[in-house]
Each structure stands twice: as C-alpha cells, then as structure tokens.
Amino acid sequence: MTVPISSLGASSTTDTSALAGQAVLGKDDFLRILVAQLRNQDPMSPMEGTEFATQLAQFSSVEQLIQLGEQMKLSAAGTTELKLTAQTTLGASMVGRDVLLNGNTVAVEAGVSSRVVVELPSTAKDVTIRVLGPDGKEVMTQSFSNLAAGRRTLGLDTDNLAPGNYTYDVVAKDASDKVITATPFSIGRVEGMAFRGGTISLRVNGTLVPMLDVVEVMADSGTTTGVPTTQEQTTP
C-alpha cells in the first residue's frame, strides 16, 4: 500500500535534522511524487477519494505559498530599487547646498566665517564654544549671551585658524549659572554624492557621510557658506 504524502511531515526529529541544509522540494517535485504515488498504488487497495482530494489540496497550498514567496521577493526588490532611486534624486538635489548634520565638527575656510548650530532646551544666559584641534586641544574659545531656546546658528571668528576640519564642544548656562544640555550640530556644503554598499553617501567638507545624518537642508544663500547673525533661529 502506498504512503500518503501527508505522512512525509510526520518524520522523526532525526530525519528532519538529516534534511537540514538540503534543497526544499518545489511544486514540480511535489507533483511528480503525487503522480508516482498514483501509478504505484496497490490495485487491490486503491487510494480513497478523500485522501486523494486532501493531497491535491496540499499541492494547491504549496503552489500558492511558492507564488506568494516569489511575489514578496519581487515586491522587496522593487521597494529597494524605488528607495535607492528616491535617495539618488534627493542626494543630487543637495549638491551645492549647505546642510545641517548630526555631529560636532566645524569647517574652517580661509577668509570665511565658520558656523555651528546648537540646540538649547531653554534660554541660555551664557554659551561658550570651544574649538578643538586634531589633538583634542583647545585652539580658540568664543562666547555668546542671552540665546533663546531652540536651534541657534552661531558665527565663529576663525580667521586665525588654519583651514581644515575641527571639532567643538559647547557649555551653556542658564540665568542661575546652572549648566543646561545643548545639542551640537555641524554645517557643511555638499560637494558630491557617492554610492556605498547600496546606500547613498554625501561628500560634505571633504568627508563622506551617510545621507541619513542630514538633519536639515538649509536655504540657498547664494554664497560660499553664508554668515548669519548669532541670534538667528532656524526651524526647531
């Protein structure tokens, strides 16, 4: 007497482990097994109609699951391609524009006032910006007073610094001289775009950064970097 296909799923744990890593049966394999079972069944004890119908239903379910898996793969591939296309278009539109990035770097260019952005949770009576060199040592300090809460753009007097990229930290205090937490940001000009590992990176101030690090695309000032007032407030 033949063994129903449904009994294949009742194998022992040992048998299941032995099949691990082997190719999964496809719908064509499933159909060949079913046909072979029909050809080799015992004429004196043929398969019951209900049993045959059950196995046909199993075959239909397997085929539907395979088709569903293929459709999901195609959908995922299409979504990835669409996402990459959108990122490419967005990245290209940023070239030549100033952007706000997560981080605490500041670019120094000859003859141009540098800018940084800090976000204050509340009004700060005093804000001190310390610019640090590659060795982590302080190279200049500049203070600001009476800055309202929010994201603030600060122009720095960096004429005495050599061109290059520096880091900075910020210390902010309220009216009672209590230190308040200020979040630093960096401003940079997007000079180009690159593809890295299926994602888009932007070249900002000579360094490639992930496009997801961009917090804000700033208004085109029509200048190389622009020098806003120290009291300018950007969009929170």
Which terms summarize this structure?
236 residues; Immunoglobulin-like; 2 domains; disordered C terminus; five-stranded antiparallel β-sheet; single chain; disordered N terminus
Describe this structure in words.
Helices cover 28% and strands 35% of the residues. With 236 residues, the chain is α+β, with helices and mostly antiparallel strands. α2 (27-39) packs antiparallel against α3. It has 3 helices and 12 strands. It has 2 domains: 5-93, no CATH class; 97-217, Immunoglobulin-like, CATH 2.60.40. The N and C termini lie far apart (77 Å). The strands form 2 sheets. Strands 1, 3, 6, 9, 10, 11 and 12 form a 7-stranded antiparallel β-sheet that branches. Strands 2, 4, 5, 7 and 8 form a 5-stranded antiparallel β-sheet that branches. Mean pLDDT is 74; it is low at 1-21 and 222-236.
